[in-house]
Amino acid sequence: MIKDVEVEVASITADDWRYDVHQYLQNPSQSASRKLRYQALKYTLLDDELYYRTIDGVLLKCLSADQAKVAIGEVHEGICGTHQSAHMVKWLLRRGGYFWPTMLEDCFRYYKGCQDCKKFGAIQRAPASAMNPIIKPWPFRGWGIDMIGSILVSDEFVQFADSMGIKLLNSSPYYAQANGQAEASNKSLIKLIKRKISDYPRQWHTRLAEALWSYRMACHGSIQVPPYKLVYGHEAVLPWEVRIGSRRTELQNNLTADEYYNLMADEREDLVQSRLRALAKVTKDKERVARHYNKKVVSKDFSEGELVWKLILPIGTRDSKFGKWSPNWEGPFQIHKVVSKGAYMLQGLDEEVYGRALNGKYLKKYYPSVWVNA
Length: 374
Hints:
The protein is of the alpha+beta class.
């Protein structure tokens, strides 16, 4: 919002950037530095007003710091202002016939500090940090489960997890990319269940075991081998193979217990090499995905104590007061703690700390308004 600032138009004080040039042009015969004499060639006095002469010979009125602030405010957010970018504001001011040496810097400072521009600013869709692929080097190297709920961050649950040897990893909310490989697996399972529930969608839980079995028997592109084979060393004998008959089942029926055990032991010895090949394929595939993902990263780094805007989550939330005119951002908030992997803990200006970390994608730097100390 533009403030009412009293501006002295006629007087030019010693701390005004126009003072030296104005004094020299009033009395060119006085001694002056070579730099000032060369600088004064670009200016002229008309009715005791200082003007800047462009390369085309157009005269632009020189404004003081207070006059420039008022002019930027009127162009940016005045009656006819449209909250345009800094470059556009500078172009409009030059087109209107005004000049001062730090026009572009001041326009950027004003634009960054405009509260309305930032509060209703666009939502960044690009990721704010590089991808961190999760690769388990061995089957059953680690077990994980997705859990959502406020009780999971309580002191009682944390103590229970420590007593059971369970390691808790908190994922920043509203950022599915940080939730690990479980999201991709769940997506595949949902697709399988959709194709099996047919006309009875409410009975999806009865098809869950069948979907899990199908998922484990399928050959996945990242490892080029079924997960079942990586665990047991050979592919499972499926019901249709028993019903139709196959060479493998026929030979198996003729084996003795000792022969069957020796063959299984041989397969387990070869299993190490199969797992290493699968690991190499997974690593290569995830590195390729990370390279493609990181091309879209718009890096954001914040430090403790820094003021930021926070995106109102979930995205699209409407305020009961503003309705469809609801802002996208709220703040300012202060960075309380920098968490790993581009996540941050926030606190309000009243020093109340928020309990969950938030990904840096949903934060942006806060710039104070130029009118704060006006």
